């Protein structure tokens, strides 16, 4: 799961169920302008919702007509309560600040990304690095892709039977570098969309995305200023072109459905817009390696939350489920990362990370007890396959969230401490495409273009060079499952006469993945203790342990769900 924790002027028009409405005066009271995401009542009319919004002092900026969700601006202090009291409105949640360049030029440089545990352990990695190896028959870096070997997504495995030709995979992430030489051949720029606007600073004045790269603060659809989305896309569908690596479905089409900020935040409106767009445009599989900010867990009536926070979280649950239902009903297989908190989602836990984005000045995360009734979206949504992460030894990764009844499947996501001496080895993470401009900006390349860190690998062919980076997390496990789902669509699908390409029932795809996954039992003992030798700045090592308990049977348990996905079995039909 991706979480580094953890609008500009709108013109009238519409795109695939996303209606943008020109601003009108409304009845605001003259206070500070704020934004809200408004969920229309189930089965109600848009006209009635519009009237309720206007009566509460709000103005619609953008509207998703497919599921009845709108972003609204207002200066009325009582908007949330007034709109929420209307029978035409199903819920109201505070939204993000308007993305615009700050007038005083106070934001300097790019965002300081917040790192979750899985990614923090990659910072400054140096142990066990190695040079690129010649690959198996085709791709020169295939020898570094232990993950593909673990699930049989190799030249001698799944590629012999199915490669996903005609299958469209939506990458709901931070963007995709569509110019990367190991992505460009499979990238559909025309079908791709960016549903976000860069946010330079938050309500507290802290840098979020940093200065906008473009005057509109809206990035092109073939740009990724974070690198996460590009990595995910590459895992799924880098082509076989004898340059660097091959993805699991090397002939599938990559569609960028950007819903994540440069800094890694994923907010409600862009996320539901991406999902409904996927449903309307023949996307077969979407990968969702994130949770919807600002709440890691959404609780409908947690006493730890103020009433307005409870209402906000109820809105997130309902709006996201509507969008997931819509995509599923339109033939989209939904795959999500389980999370990187090393916690059992089926047990009561404590969360101190939310809200992770301030909607108003002074807002900050606070500690609250999370009962099992709370929901993390999208991984706990209906119709979603939640994927846990494995390391090179096939053990569940130390950081991966889990839970008997929560985990559906598992897949390689990397574990740099899955080593004989429990010390970090960067090559035990996952290697995939990396935008060159980010490697340059982050000082990871020498003047001659060669990498100066073992976390980045270069591969060149006929004067064209591609760059690749090691990452780990359930963010990396989920696209492995999504790639295998693309193979299932390729094998089971029939011609999509409306949108082109192929189409298969999400239920049939799920059955194919679950039925071929390799049963992986709980460890013995089931209360498994992870040991990490964590290197300190002075070179010494500190032993860090964590005990996590696996519940369930060999065929289905909390660490692995129905098992580790298997690309070869799905590709050949058994």
Automatic annotation (TrEMBL):
Highest rank taxon of the organism: Bacteria
Organism field: Kribbella kalugense
Name under which the protein is recorded: Subtilase family protein
Any one of the GO BP annotations: proteolysis
Lineage, uppermost ranks: Bacteria, Bacillati, Actinomycetota, Actinomycetes, Propionibacteriales
InterPro entries membership: Peptidase_S8/S53_dom (IPR000209), Peptidase_S8/S53_dom_sf (IPR036852), Peptidase_S8_Asp-AS (IPR023827), Peptidase_S8_His-AS (IPR022398), Peptidase_S8_Ser-AS (IPR023828), Peptidase_S8_subtilisin-like (IPR050131), Peptidase_S8_subtilisin-rel (IPR015500)
Location of the active site: 173, 228, 475
Family of this protein: Belongs to the peptidase S8 family.
Record-annotated Peptidase S8/S53 domain positions: 164-514
GO molecular function list: serine-type endopeptidase activity
Signal peptide from the UniProt entry: 1-28
Keywords: Hydrolase, Protease, Serine protease, Signal
Keyword Iron-sulfur tagged: no
């Amino acid at each position: 799961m991706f979480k580094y924790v953890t609008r500009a002027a709108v013109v009238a028009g519409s795109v695939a169920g996303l209606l943008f409405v020109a601003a009108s005066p409304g009845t605001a009271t003259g206070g500070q302008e704020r934004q809200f995401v408004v969920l229309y009542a189930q089965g109600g009319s848009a006209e009635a919702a519009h009237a309720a919004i206007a009566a509460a002092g709000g103005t619609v900026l953008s509207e998703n007509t497919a599921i009845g969700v709108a972003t609204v601006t207002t200066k009325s202090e009582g908007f949330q309560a007034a709109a929420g009291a209307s029978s035409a409105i199903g819920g109201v949640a505070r939204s993000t600040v308007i993305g615009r360049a700050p007038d005083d030029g106070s934001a300097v440089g790019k965002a300081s990304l917040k790192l979750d545990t899985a990614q923090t352990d990659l910072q400054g990695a140096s142990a066990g690095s190695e040079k690129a190896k010649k690959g198996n028959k085709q791709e020169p870096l295939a020898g570094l892709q232990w993950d593909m070997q673990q699930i049989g997504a190799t030249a001698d495995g799944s590629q012999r039977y199915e490669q996903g030709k005609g299958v469209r995979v939506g990458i709901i992430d931070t963007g995709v570098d569509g110019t990367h030489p190991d992505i460009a051949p499979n990238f559909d720029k025309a079908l791709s969309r960016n549903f976000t606007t860069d946010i330079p600073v938050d309500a507290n004045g802290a840098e979020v995305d940093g200065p906008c790269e473009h005057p509109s603060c809206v990035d092109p659809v073939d740009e990724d200023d974070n690198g996460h989305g590009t990595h995910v896309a590459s895992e799924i569908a880098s082509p076989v072109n004898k340059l660097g690596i091959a993805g699991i479905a090397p002939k599938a089409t990559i569609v960028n459905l950007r819903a994540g900020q440069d800094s890694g935040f994923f907010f409600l409106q862009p996320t539901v817009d991406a999902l409904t767009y996927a449903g309307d445009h023949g996307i077969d599989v979407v990968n969702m390696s994130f949770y919807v900010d600002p709440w890691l867990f959404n609780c409908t009536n947690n006493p730890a939350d103020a009433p307005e926070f409870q209402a906000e979280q109820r809105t997130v649950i309902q709006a996201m489920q509507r969008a997931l239902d819509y995509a599923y009903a339109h033939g989209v297989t939904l795959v999500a990362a389980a999370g990187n908190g090393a916690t059992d989602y089926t047990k009561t836990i404590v969360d101190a990370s939310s809200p992770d984005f301030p909607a108003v000045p002074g807002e900050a995360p606070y500690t609250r007890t999370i009962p099992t009734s709370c929901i993390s979206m999208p991984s706990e949504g209906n119709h979603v396959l939640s994927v846990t992460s494995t390391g090179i030894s096939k053990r569940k990764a130390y950081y991966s969230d889990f839970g008997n009844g929560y985990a559906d499947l598992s897949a390689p996501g990397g574990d740099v401490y899955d080593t004989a001496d429990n010390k970090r080895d960067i090559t035990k993470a996952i290697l995939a495409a990396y935008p060159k401009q980010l490697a340059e900006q982050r000082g990871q390349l020498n003047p001659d273009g060669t990498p100066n860190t073992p976390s980045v690998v270069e591969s060149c062919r006929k004067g064209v060079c591609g760059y690749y980076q090691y990452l780990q997390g359930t963010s990396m496990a989920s696209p492995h499952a999504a790639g295998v789902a693309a193979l299932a669509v390729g094998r089971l699908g029939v011609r999509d006469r409306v949108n082109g390409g192929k189409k298969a029932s999400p239920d049939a795809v799920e059955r194919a993945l679950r039925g071929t996954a390799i049963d992986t039992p709980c460890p013995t003992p089931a209360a498994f203790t992870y040991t990490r030798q964590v290197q300190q700045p002075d070179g010494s090592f500190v032993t860090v342990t964590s005990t996590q308990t696996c519940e369930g049977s060999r065929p289905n348990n909390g660490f692995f769900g129905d098992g580790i996905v298997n690309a070869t079995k799905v590709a050949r039909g058994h």
